[in-house]
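Renewal narrative, Specific Aim 1. Our central claim is that a sequence can be written position by position from structural information alone. The example that follows is taken directly from our test logs and has not been curated for this report. It begins with the C-alpha coordinates describing the chain, in the order in which they were read.
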Protein backbone atom coordinates (compact mmCIF):
# COMPACT_ATOMS: atom_id res chain seq x y z
CA UNK A 1 0.00 0.00 0.00
CA UNK A 2 1.19 3.50 -0.79
CA UNK A 3 2.43 5.71 2.03
CA UNK A 4 1.28 9.32 2.30
CA UNK A 5 3.72 11.83 0.84
CA UNK A 6 6.44 12.93 3.24
CA UNK A 7 5.34 16.56 3.17
CA UNK A 8 1.80 15.86 4.43
CA UNK A 9 1.20 17.21 7.94
CA UNK A 10 -1.83 17.82 10.12
CA UNK A 11 -2.88 21.32 11.22
CA UNK A 12 -1.13 21.63 14.59
CA UNK A 13 -2.75 24.95 15.46
CA UNK A 14 -6.26 23.62 14.83
CA UNK A 15 -5.55 20.52 16.93
CA UNK A 16 -4.25 22.66 19.79
CA UNK A 17 -7.23 25.02 19.61
CA UNK A 18 -9.57 22.02 19.81
CA UNK A 19 -7.73 20.69 22.86
CA UNK A 20 -8.01 24.06 24.59
CA UNK A 21 -11.72 24.39 23.75
CA UNK A 22 -12.50 20.92 25.07
CA UNK A 23 -10.54 21.75 28.25
CA UNK A 24 -13.06 24.51 29.02
CA UNK A 25 -15.65 21.79 29.72
CA UNK A 26 -15.34 20.39 33.23
CA UNK A 27 -12.48 22.62 34.38
CA UNK A 28 -10.51 21.51 37.40
CA UNK A 29 -9.53 23.70 40.32
CA UNK A 30 -5.86 23.96 39.35
CA UNK A 31 -5.73 24.31 35.58
CA UNK A 32 -6.68 20.80 34.55
CA UNK A 33 -9.98 19.00 34.14
CA UNK A 34 -12.61 17.18 36.16
CA UNK A 35 -14.76 15.58 33.47
CA UNK A 36 -15.47 12.22 35.02
CA UNK A 37 -17.36 9.63 33.05
CA UNK A 38 -21.15 9.90 32.72
CA UNK A 39 -21.33 13.25 34.49
CA UNK A 40 -23.09 16.24 32.99
CA UNK A 41 -19.65 17.54 31.98
CA UNK A 42 -18.92 14.30 30.15
CA UNK A 43 -22.19 14.72 28.28
CA UNK A 44 -21.26 18.26 27.33
CA UNK A 45 -17.83 17.17 26.07
CA UNK A 46 -19.44 14.42 24.01
CA UNK A 47 -21.85 16.89 22.45
CA UNK A 48 -18.98 19.16 21.38
CA UNK A 49 -17.09 16.22 19.87
CA UNK A 50 -20.21 15.13 17.97
CA UNK A 51 -20.73 18.66 16.65
CA UNK A 52 -17.15 18.81 15.38
CA UNK A 53 -17.39 15.36 13.78
CA UNK A 54 -20.64 16.14 11.99
CA UNK A 55 -19.15 19.41 10.75
CA UNK A 56 -16.32 17.32 9.28
CA UNK A 57 -18.87 15.27 7.34
CA UNK A 58 -18.84 12.20 9.58
CA UNK A 59 -21.78 10.01 10.49
CA UNK A 60 -21.98 9.32 14.24
CA UNK A 61 -22.58 5.85 15.66
CA UNK A 62 -23.37 5.19 19.32
CA UNK A 63 -23.50 1.80 21.00
CA UNK A 64 -25.20 0.61 24.18
CA UNK A 65 -22.12 1.40 26.30
CA UNK A 66 -22.02 4.98 25.01
CA UNK A 67 -18.98 4.42 22.80
CA UNK A 68 -18.93 7.03 20.01
CA UNK A 69 -17.88 6.22 16.43
CA UNK A 70 -17.55 9.08 13.92
CA UNK A 71 -17.05 7.60 10.45
CA UNK A 72 -15.54 9.19 7.34
CA UNK A 73 -16.65 7.00 4.45
CA UNK A 74 -14.20 5.09 2.31
CA UNK A 75 -14.46 4.31 -1.39
CA UNK A 76 -14.96 0.56 -0.90
CA UNK A 77 -18.23 -0.26 0.91
CA UNK A 78 -16.90 -3.75 1.68
CA UNK A 79 -13.65 -2.57 3.28
CA UNK A 80 -13.47 -2.72 7.08
CA UNK A 81 -12.82 0.64 8.77
CA UNK A 82 -9.59 1.80 10.37
CA UNK A 83 -10.46 3.01 13.86
CA UNK A 84 -8.51 5.68 15.73
CA UNK A 85 -9.20 7.26 19.10
CA UNK A 86 -9.02 7.17 22.87
CA UNK A 87 -11.25 8.65 25.63
CA UNK A 88 -12.70 12.01 26.70
CA UNK A 89 -13.30 11.21 30.38
CA UNK A 90 -10.77 12.39 32.98
CA UNK A 91 -9.61 11.76 36.50
CA UNK A 92 -11.15 13.96 39.24
CA UNK A 93 -7.94 15.98 39.13
CA UNK A 94 -6.97 15.17 35.57
CA UNK A 95 -5.01 16.95 32.89
CA UNK A 96 -6.09 18.42 29.58
CA UNK A 97 -4.42 15.80 27.38
CA UNK A 98 -4.73 12.30 28.89
CA UNK A 99 -7.08 10.53 26.50
CA UNK A 100 -8.43 13.71 24.96
CA UNK A 101 -5.40 14.11 22.69
CA UNK A 102 -6.05 10.71 21.15
CA UNK A 103 -9.72 11.43 20.44
CA UNK A 104 -9.14 14.87 18.95
CA UNK A 105 -6.11 13.62 17.00
CA UNK A 106 -8.46 11.11 15.36
CA UNK A 107 -10.75 13.99 14.42
CA UNK A 108 -7.75 15.97 13.14
CA UNK A 109 -6.78 13.05 10.87
CA UNK A 110 -10.23 13.29 9.29
CA UNK A 111 -10.15 17.08 9.06
CA UNK A 112 -6.74 16.97 7.36
CA UNK A 113 -7.93 14.38 4.84
CA UNK A 114 -10.84 16.70 4.06
CA UNK A 115 -8.50 19.67 3.65
CA UNK A 116 -6.28 17.74 1.26
CA UNK A 117 -9.10 16.09 -0.67
CA UNK A 118 -7.63 12.65 -0.01
CA UNK A 119 -9.89 9.60 -0.32
CA UNK A 120 -9.15 6.26 1.31
CA UNK A 121 -10.32 2.78 0.42
CA UNK A 122 -11.17 1.94 4.02
CA UNK A 123 -13.44 4.17 6.10
CA UNK A 124 -11.77 5.94 9.02
CA UNK A 125 -13.59 6.12 12.36
CA UNK A 126 -12.70 8.57 15.15
CA UNK A 127 -13.63 6.91 18.45
CA UNK A 128 -14.41 7.95 22.02
CA UNK A 129 -14.45 5.00 24.44
CA UNK A 130 -16.63 5.40 27.55
CA UNK A 131 -15.11 5.21 31.06
CA UNK A 132 -11.48 4.51 30.26
CA UNK A 133 -10.30 6.00 33.55
CA UNK A 134 -12.31 3.74 35.86
CA UNK A 135 -12.12 6.35 38.60
CA UNK A 136 -15.90 6.62 39.04
CA UNK A 137 -16.92 3.13 37.92
CA UNK A 138 -14.23 0.45 38.30
CA UNK A 139 -12.57 -1.13 36.45
CA UNK A 140 -10.69 1.05 33.98
CA UNK A 141 -11.28 0.61 30.24
CA UNK A 142 -14.75 -0.65 31.07
CA UNK A 143 -16.51 -0.05 27.75
CA UNK A 144 -13.68 -1.15 25.48
CA UNK A 145 -13.56 -4.23 27.70
CA UNK A 146 -17.23 -4.96 26.96
CA UNK A 147 -16.56 -4.31 23.26
CA UNK A 148 -13.72 -6.87 23.31
CA UNK A 149 -15.81 -9.44 25.18
CA UNK A 150 -13.86 -9.22 28.44
CA UNK A 151 -16.90 -8.10 30.47
CA UNK A 152 -20.62 -8.63 30.01
CA UNK A 153 -22.77 -5.59 29.40
CA UNK A 154 -25.06 -6.42 32.32
CA UNK A 155 -22.08 -6.60 34.67
CA UNK A 156 -20.81 -3.25 33.40
CA UNK A 157 -24.25 -1.63 33.77
CA UNK A 158 -24.37 -2.82 37.40
CA UNK A 159 -21.08 -1.17 38.40
CA UNK A 160 -21.71 1.55 41.00
CA UNK A 161 -19.91 4.71 42.04
CA UNK A 162 -19.21 5.94 45.57
CA UNK A 163 -22.76 7.26 45.83
CA UNK A 164 -24.33 3.96 44.76
CA UNK A 165 -25.33 5.22 41.31
CA UNK A 166 -25.08 2.56 38.60
CA UNK A 167 -23.23 2.88 35.31
CA UNK A 168 -26.31 1.89 33.32
CA UNK A 169 -28.57 4.43 35.02
CA UNK A 170 -26.07 7.26 34.67
CA UNK A 171 -25.43 6.46 30.99
CA UNK A 172 -29.16 6.76 30.33
CA UNK A 173 -29.49 9.86 32.50
CA UNK A 174 -26.99 11.90 30.47
CA UNK A 175 -28.60 10.72 27.22
CA UNK A 176 -25.68 8.84 25.69
CA UNK A 177 -26.92 5.25 25.64
CA UNK A 178 -27.14 4.12 22.03
CA UNK A 179 -28.98 1.20 20.49
CA UNK A 180 -26.09 -0.40 18.60
CA UNK A 181 -24.93 -3.79 19.89
CA UNK A 182 -21.57 -3.48 21.65
CA UNK A 183 -18.77 -5.26 19.81
CA UNK A 184 -20.76 -5.79 16.62
CA UNK A 185 -18.37 -3.57 14.67
CA UNK A 186 -15.45 -5.25 12.91
CA UNK A 187 -12.17 -3.40 12.53
CA UNK A 188 -9.43 -3.47 9.91
CA UNK A 189 -7.09 -1.96 12.54
CA UNK A 190 -7.10 0.34 15.58
CA UNK A 191 -4.58 3.09 16.41
CA UNK A 192 -4.37 5.13 19.61
CA UNK A 193 -2.26 8.22 20.29
CA UNK A 194 -1.61 8.99 23.95
CA UNK A 195 0.72 11.05 26.07
CA UNK A 196 3.36 8.81 27.61
CA UNK A 197 2.35 9.44 31.25
CA UNK A 198 5.95 8.70 32.15
CA UNK A 199 9.34 10.44 31.90
CA UNK A 200 11.22 8.25 29.41
CA UNK A 201 10.64 10.03 26.09
CA UNK A 202 11.41 13.48 27.51
CA UNK A 203 14.51 12.19 29.31
CA UNK A 204 15.76 10.50 26.14
CA UNK A 205 14.96 13.54 23.97
CA UNK A 206 12.68 11.55 21.65
CA UNK A 207 9.69 12.95 19.77
CA UNK A 208 7.80 9.69 19.41
CA UNK A 209 7.31 6.50 21.39
CA UNK A 210 6.58 3.43 19.25
CA UNK A 211 4.62 1.29 21.70
CA UNK A 212 5.45 -2.37 21.22
CA UNK A 213 3.95 -3.78 24.43
CA UNK A 214 1.67 -2.80 27.28
CA UNK A 215 2.20 -3.72 30.91
CA UNK A 216 -0.26 -6.09 32.50
CA UNK A 217 -2.28 -4.76 35.40
CA UNK A 218 -3.90 -6.21 38.49
CA UNK A 219 -6.27 -4.34 40.82
CA UNK A 220 -7.03 -6.07 44.13
CA UNK A 221 -9.44 -4.38 46.52
CA UNK A 222 -8.47 -5.07 50.11
CA UNK A 223 -10.87 -4.63 53.04
CA UNK A 224 -9.45 -4.68 56.55
CA UNK A 225 -11.86 -4.69 59.49
CA UNK A 226 -10.94 -3.89 63.08
CA UNK A 227 -12.91 -1.96 65.69
CA UNK A 228 -13.83 1.72 65.94
CA UNK A 229 -12.66 3.14 69.27
CA UNK A 230 -11.76 6.42 70.94
CA UNK A 231 -8.22 7.48 70.09
CA UNK A 232 -7.65 9.04 73.51
CA UNK A 233 -9.06 6.49 75.91
CA UNK A 234 -8.31 3.13 74.27
CA UNK A 235 -5.06 1.57 75.59
CA UNK A 236 -2.56 0.75 72.86
CA UNK A 237 -2.51 -3.03 73.52
CA UNK A 238 -6.32 -3.19 73.26
CA UNK A 239 -6.67 -1.55 69.87
CA UNK A 240 -7.74 -3.27 66.64
CA UNK A 241 -6.52 -0.52 64.33
CA UNK A 242 -7.51 -1.19 60.71
CA UNK A 243 -5.53 1.87 59.60
CA UNK A 244 -2.33 0.51 61.08
CA UNK A 245 -3.00 -2.82 59.42
CA UNK A 246 -3.34 -1.05 56.08
CA UNK A 247 -0.05 0.77 56.63
CA UNK A 248 1.76 -2.52 57.22
CA UNK A 249 0.17 -4.12 54.16
CA UNK A 250 1.15 -1.17 51.99
CA UNK A 251 4.71 -1.38 53.21
CA UNK A 252 4.64 -5.01 52.08
CA UNK A 253 3.21 -3.97 48.68
CA UNK A 254 6.23 -1.73 48.17
CA UNK A 255 8.59 -4.52 49.16
CA UNK A 256 6.90 -7.00 46.82
CA UNK A 257 7.12 -4.66 43.81
CA UNK A 258 10.75 -3.77 44.52
CA UNK A 259 11.65 -7.47 44.58
CA UNK A 260 10.81 -7.56 40.86
CA UNK A 261 12.76 -4.41 39.89
CA UNK A 262 13.14 -2.64 37.58
CA UNK A 263 9.92 -3.13 35.59
CA UNK A 264 7.33 -4.12 38.22
CA UNK A 265 5.46 -1.45 40.18
CA UNK A 266 2.91 -1.43 42.97
CA UNK A 267 0.98 1.03 45.12
CA UNK A 268 -2.47 1.87 46.46
CA UNK A 269 -4.07 5.01 45.04
CA UNK A 270 -7.69 4.56 46.17
CA UNK A 271 -8.10 4.48 49.96
CA UNK A 272 -11.26 4.85 52.06
CA UNK A 273 -10.99 5.01 55.85
CA UNK A 274 -14.00 4.56 58.13
CA UNK A 275 -15.31 6.44 60.01
CA UNK A 276 -12.57 8.90 58.96
CA UNK A 277 -12.85 11.01 62.12
CA UNK A 278 -9.93 12.68 63.87
CA UNK A 279 -10.58 11.09 67.24
CA UNK A 280 -11.71 7.62 66.20
CA UNK A 281 -9.37 4.71 65.58
CA UNK A 282 -10.23 3.39 62.10
CA UNK A 283 -12.48 0.35 62.33
CA UNK A 284 -12.43 -0.36 58.61
CA UNK A 285 -10.34 0.51 55.58
CA UNK A 286 -10.88 -0.29 51.92
CA UNK A 287 -8.05 0.24 49.46
CA UNK A 288 -7.06 -0.98 46.01
CA UNK A 289 -3.58 -2.35 45.34
CA UNK A 290 -2.37 -1.70 41.79
CA UNK A 291 0.35 -4.09 40.58
CA UNK A 292 1.82 -3.86 37.06
CA UNK A 293 4.46 -5.68 35.05
CA UNK A 294 5.11 -6.62 31.41
CA UNK A 295 5.40 -10.26 32.57
CA UNK A 296 2.29 -12.23 33.54
CA UNK A 297 4.22 -14.54 35.88
CA UNK A 298 5.43 -11.53 37.87
CA UNK A 299 1.89 -10.17 38.24
CA UNK A 300 0.66 -13.55 39.45
CA UNK A 301 3.50 -13.77 41.98
CA UNK A 302 2.77 -10.29 43.33
CA UNK A 303 -0.95 -11.06 43.66
CA UNK A 304 -0.27 -14.29 45.53
CA UNK A 305 2.26 -12.72 47.89
CA UNK A 306 -0.14 -9.85 48.68
CA UNK A 307 -2.77 -12.31 49.86
CA UNK A 308 -0.33 -14.40 51.91
CA UNK A 309 1.45 -11.46 53.53
CA UNK A 310 -1.77 -9.50 54.05
CA UNK A 311 -3.41 -12.43 55.81
CA UNK A 312 -0.33 -12.91 58.00
CA UNK A 313 -0.36 -9.23 59.04
CA UNK A 314 -4.10 -9.29 59.78
CA UNK A 315 -3.88 -12.47 61.83
CA UNK A 316 -1.02 -11.07 63.93
CA UNK A 317 -3.00 -7.89 64.66
CA UNK A 318 -6.38 -9.50 65.34
CA UNK A 319 -7.93 -7.99 62.22
CA UNK A 320 -10.13 -9.42 59.50
CA UNK A 321 -9.01 -9.08 55.89
CA UNK A 322 -10.70 -9.78 52.55
CA UNK A 323 -9.39 -9.61 48.99
CA UNK A 324 -11.35 -9.04 45.78
CA UNK A 325 -9.82 -8.73 42.33
CA UNK A 326 -11.70 -5.80 40.80
CA UNK A 327 -9.78 -5.23 37.58
CA UNK A 328 -6.87 -6.30 35.47
CA UNK A 329 -5.56 -7.47 32.16
CA UNK A 330 -2.65 -9.53 30.91
CA UNK A 331 0.44 -7.94 29.33
CA UNK A 332 -0.09 -6.96 25.70
CA UNK A 333 2.05 -7.41 22.58
CA UNK A 334 0.75 -5.04 19.90
CA UNK A 335 0.33 -6.05 16.25
CA UNK A 336 3.67 -6.11 14.45
CA UNK A 337 2.24 -4.70 11.22
CA UNK A 338 0.59 -1.74 12.94
CA UNK A 339 3.71 -1.11 15.03
CA UNK A 340 5.79 -1.11 11.85
CA UNK A 341 3.41 1.42 10.24
CA UNK A 342 3.99 3.76 13.19
CA UNK A 343 7.76 3.28 13.18
CA UNK A 344 7.95 3.82 9.40
CA UNK A 345 5.83 6.95 9.71
CA UNK A 346 8.14 8.43 12.34
CA UNK A 347 11.18 7.69 10.18
CA UNK A 348 9.54 9.04 7.01
CA UNK A 349 8.67 12.28 8.80
CA UNK A 350 12.10 12.67 10.37
CA UNK A 351 10.95 12.45 14.00
CA UNK A 352 13.27 10.92 16.57
CA UNK A 353 11.69 7.81 18.06
CA UNK A 354 12.24 4.78 20.27
CA UNK A 355 10.43 1.60 21.21
CA UNK A 356 8.58 1.85 24.51
CA UNK A 357 6.45 -0.32 26.80
CA UNK A 358 3.33 1.40 28.07
CA UNK A 359 3.22 1.52 31.84
CA UNK A 360 -0.45 2.50 31.88
CA UNK A 361 -3.54 0.68 30.72
CA UNK A 362 -5.30 1.95 27.60
CA UNK A 363 -8.34 1.04 25.53
CA UNK A 364 -5.92 -0.25 22.90
CA UNK A 365 -4.95 -3.04 25.32
CA UNK A 366 -8.45 -4.53 25.08
CA UNK A 367 -9.05 -3.75 21.39
CA UNK A 368 -5.78 -5.55 20.58
CA UNK A 369 -7.67 -8.77 21.38
CA UNK A 370 -10.18 -8.27 18.57
CA UNK A 371 -8.29 -6.27 15.92
CA UNK A 372 -4.72 -5.46 14.85
CA UNK A 373 -3.75 -2.59 17.15
CA UNK A 374 -0.85 -0.29 17.99
CA UNK A 375 -0.14 2.90 19.92
CA UNK A 376 1.82 6.11 19.38
CA UNK A 377 3.09 8.11 22.34
CA UNK A 378 4.33 11.66 22.69
CA UNK A 379 6.26 13.06 25.67
CA UNK A 380 4.69 14.87 28.60
CA UNK A 381 6.55 17.30 30.86
CA UNK A 382 8.35 15.49 33.71
CA UNK A 383 6.26 12.42 32.93
CA UNK A 384 3.44 13.88 35.01
CA UNK A 385 -0.12 12.68 34.40
CA UNK A 386 -3.33 12.08 36.36
CA UNK A 387 -2.57 15.52 37.74
CA UNK A 388 -3.94 18.94 36.83
CA UNK A 389 -0.39 20.12 36.15
CA UNK A 390 -0.07 17.61 33.28
CA UNK A 391 1.50 19.41 30.31
CA UNK A 392 2.65 18.80 26.75
CA UNK A 393 3.84 21.16 24.02
CA UNK A 394 2.03 22.05 20.84
CA UNK A 395 4.95 20.60 18.86
CA UNK A 396 4.76 17.27 20.72
CA UNK A 397 1.02 17.05 20.04
CA UNK A 398 1.53 17.84 16.36
CA UNK A 399 4.39 15.36 15.94
CA UNK A 400 2.40 12.55 17.52
CA UNK A 401 -0.62 13.34 15.37
CA UNK A 402 1.52 13.58 12.22
CA UNK A 403 2.78 10.05 12.87
CA UNK A 404 -0.74 8.89 13.66
CA UNK A 405 -2.03 10.46 10.43
CA UNK A 406 0.57 8.70 8.29
CA UNK A 407 0.09 5.31 9.97
CA UNK A 408 -3.72 5.50 9.79
CA UNK A 409 -3.88 6.76 6.21
CA UNK A 410 -1.34 4.22 4.96
CA UNK A 411 -3.36 1.46 6.60
CA UNK A 412 -6.64 2.87 5.18
CA UNK A 413 -5.01 2.95 1.69
CA UNK A 414 -5.05 6.16 -0.34
CA UNK A 415 -7.13 6.04 -3.51
CA UNK A 416 -5.35 7.80 -6.34
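The sequence written for that structure reads:
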Amino acid sequence: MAAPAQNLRINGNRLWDSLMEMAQIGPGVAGGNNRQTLTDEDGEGRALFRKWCEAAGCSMGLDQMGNMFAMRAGTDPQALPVYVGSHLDTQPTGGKYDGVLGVLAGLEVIRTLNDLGIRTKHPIVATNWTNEEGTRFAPAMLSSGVFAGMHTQDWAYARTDAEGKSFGDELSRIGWRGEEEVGARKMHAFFELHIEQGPILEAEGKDIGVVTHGQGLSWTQVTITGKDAHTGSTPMPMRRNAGLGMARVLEKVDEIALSHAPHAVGAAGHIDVYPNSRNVIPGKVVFTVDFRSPELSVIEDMEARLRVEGQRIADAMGLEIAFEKVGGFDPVAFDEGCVLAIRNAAERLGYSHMNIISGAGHDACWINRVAPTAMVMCPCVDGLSHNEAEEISKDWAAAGTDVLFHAVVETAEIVE
